[in-house]
Amino acid sequence: MYAAPLIFTALGGVASENSGVVNIGLEGMMTIGALIGATVGYYLGNPWIAFLSAGIGGGILALLHAIASITFEADQIVSGIAINFLGSGLSLFLSRIFFEGTTMTKPIDLNHKMPRPFNEIFSNNSFLDLVFNQYITVYLSFLLVLIMWFMLYKTKLGLRIRSVGEHPKAADTLGINVHRIRYFSVILSGILSGFGGAAMSLAVVSNFRPTLISGQGFIALAAMIFGKWKPQGAMLACLLFGAAQGLIVYLGGTGANIPTQILAMVPYILTLIVLTGFVGKSSGPAANGEPYTKHDIG
Amino acid sequence: MKRNRVIFTIVSIALGFLVGGLILAAVGFNLFDVYSTMFKGVFSRPKYIAWTIIRSVPIILTGLSVAFAFRTGLFNIGAEGQFIIGALVAALLGYFLELPLVIHAIVVLIGAGIAAGLWGSIAGYLRAKFGVHEVISTIMLNWIALYLNNYVVSWEKFRRPQSEASYKILDSASIGILQQWKRTDAGREFLSNSKFLREILSAPVNWGIIIAILCAIMVWYILQKTTLGYELRAVGLNQDASEYGGINVRRSILTSMFISGILAGLAGAIHVLGVTKEVAILSFMEGSGFDGIAVALLGNNTPLGSVLSGLLFGALKYSGPKIQSTMGAPSEVINIMIGSIVFFTSMPSFIKIIASKFKRRRGEVKVD
User: Which residue ranges run through the membrane (chain B) (predicted)?
Assistant: First the structure.
């Protein structure tokens, strides 16, 4: 449950960075998605419309990043940082406008949250119930990992995305429109991050508040690098993170005499240890971060 | 080239203000009123100016920290965590140590700086030894620092009863200017005659800005005038070439993160010694480190640029809440403005194109 928002967002990172555009703005895109999800969900009462609008919102923010970093050859890290400021600023700004000057949206009616497909199928609090009675966003995120993997490694489009990220010039020579592929990937990345934010504000909790996302976009970014820029790797990293967070809740519940603050550090320390020992050096797509200018070839 | 860069930056700032204004206008605020409120909120009284400078100091320093790391090829997202460690250690040393005036403050600053420097070095070490990307490790270290802070603040010998914060630091560790004196009888009497001084001293004026400027000069000196700086910059420009040229790249990375950490830690320490006098339990990242990234970027990763853009962002952040309190305009527009400014600085070619369009319209197209 804790992992789903991260998985959506990390997949967004995978999409963008495989095409060669660094996307540090995931955090901002996630934040705007969370706000739009919660706002639309509150006013329309339909979680699916809310979820889709959140994706569109994230996509629009990503479009800005795409225009800057693809068309105007901006420094992608700088532009991404700007997106983060814009995302959080716009979210709180809009929240104040839609919700009478507060930066916290009103809670969505529980019936209008994301559905739990396996609710009441298993007996209450049984093992199966605890494992499978999740919000549908959890299942969607796993499905998306599969789709993403298939798209990147089994389709022509995926091959193009990866070739544009590895060697844009060669791709261009072969007649691939580098800019168009990159625009597609970056906007897709924003849509997915928007979903990630909405998975937070429509499922995990039921409203938006300024601290809701605080850092999760960055954690998703870390998970993507951790997972070596691959969808399945990013998913595993997010799960590790979610599991560690679940462990905290579990250990906290057993009454073991460990201060909660120390427990809260565990996922982060674990990530660092795993990174040093098990993953080793990882490198992203070769042309990641480099703008591509088409010079007149012929 | 250098002049162009300055012009781009100024145009970006103007465009950022324009975007902020348009957004406010779109939701029905008069942007002239907004900007005049902000301007008055920063410049109309000496007290406001003092506050603006006080608010700018931490982000100037975190800006320097990020800029320094950037110049050496590292992206320090961890200024936030280093800031927290600096603040925490400053509060601990400021409360538990008993030393004479001045010496106490200096010891605290050095201790906090070193602690944060070591915190930054963890990321440097992981990068140098295991190849762990510093973006990931610093993000993790930010969170670990946050929870460590909360753990230490909850410690019963340190936590002020019935509060979410630590005990206040001892007066001997304060870096406030004339803070004690203004409470003495002589001070009160003197201040009642000088409105100007009274105004300024009503803000927690402290030595922070002087320390920040000294740090900026140091950073400039290290980067431009020393062998160490030359090596660090070389590693930043091309790691492989530097390795081939006999520079110990691993040690450079470690040194760079250490210095970067010191700068961010000083930001935290100054904030505690000069303004808050305590550390509190944090429920989320307060953002000085992230503001530092924006400051460094706008300042083109130079020390002087960091100081100037730190002052600009400090002014924006200080005046933001004022438009909210006086006219009910959402103060978050400040983050939108900062975002837009950074956004436009990221794409000089956009501004170039706009500029050339303007020239064309006026019929002064120059072929270069």
Answer: 7-28, 48-70, 77-97, 103-126, 205-223, 253-273, 333-355
